[in-house]
């Protein structure tokens, strides 16, 4: 793999994974987790597959019975729950829980043998808080290194633990109304005039 040829001391290796894809299984997602562990990436991001309108994955999911076409049911964030139809509710719960634990287990492989014990637990705020805490720490230290101010740190902590009070600062901002972009009609490109060279025969 190309990633194996990168010098780890010179690059930060960021892997963007999608779990819970239509027709996929928990075993597929666990294999994806194991691949991230094998590659030893610096940050193994994971999102839940979301069939946004107009995408090929949405078309595939609808045509094959993995999604009912109710786009209003899609949450603002692809980090919370999935609208994909799985084999049963148990598999849905296990994949959603795996998503929350994916990045931290990829970073701490010693946790891998215990993953299966956690997946059958009901979806809970603790898993979500762990996911968000790890996401925040990795983004500040590795993905986009920066030195946050005290206010930014406070906002980050509130974002992580606010869910226990039913408050999520990330959802406190209204979604902006769509803005119609102006369409400028341009004239069709002028055809290049072909010049004919007349060669006189001797």
At a glance:
The chain is 38% helix and 6% strand. The chain contains six helices and two strands.
Strand arrangement, major sheet = 1-2
Succession of helices and strands = EHEHHHHH
Low-confidence stretches: 198-202
Spatial gap, N to C terminus: 66 Å
DSSP summary, beta strand count: 2
Choose one word for the global shape.
globular
Question: What gyration radius follows from the Cα positions, in whole Å?
Answer: 24 Å
How much strand content do the residues show? 5-15%
Structure in words:
There is one protein chain. It is built from six helices and two strands. The chain has one domain (9-171). Strand 1 (14-19), helix 1 (26-39) and strand 2 (43-48) form a beta-alpha-beta unit. The radius of gyration is 24 Å and the shape is globular. The chain is mostly helical. The longest helix is centred in the middle third of the chain and has 19 residues, at 89-107. The termini are far apart. It has a two-stranded parallel ribbon.
């Amino acid at each position: 793999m190309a990633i194996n040829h990168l010098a780890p001391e010179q690059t930060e290796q960021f892997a963007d994974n999608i779990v819970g894809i239509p027709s996929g299984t928990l075993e597929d997602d666990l294999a994806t987790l194991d691949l991230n562990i094998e590659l030893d990436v610096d940050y193994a991001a994971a999102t839940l597959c979301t069939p946004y309108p107009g995408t090929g994955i949405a078309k595939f999911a609808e045509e094959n019975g993995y999604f009912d076409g109710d786009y209003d049911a899609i949450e603002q964030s692809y980090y919370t729950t999935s609208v994909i139809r799985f084999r049963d509710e148990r598999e849905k719960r296990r994949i959603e829980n795996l998503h929350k634990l994916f990045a931290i287990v990829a970073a701490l492989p010693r946790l891998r043998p215990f993953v299966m014990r956690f997946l059958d637990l009901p979806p809970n705020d603790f898993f979500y808080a762990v996911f968000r805490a790890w996401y925040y720490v990795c983004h500040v230290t590795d993905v986009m290194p920066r030195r946050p101010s005290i206010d930014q740190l406070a906002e980050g902590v509130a974002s992580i633990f606010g869910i226990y009070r039913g408050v999520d600062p990330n959802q406190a901002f209204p979604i902006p109304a769509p803005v119609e972009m102006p369409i400028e009609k341009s004239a069709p490109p002028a055809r290049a005039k072909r010049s004919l060279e007349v060669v006189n025969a001797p």
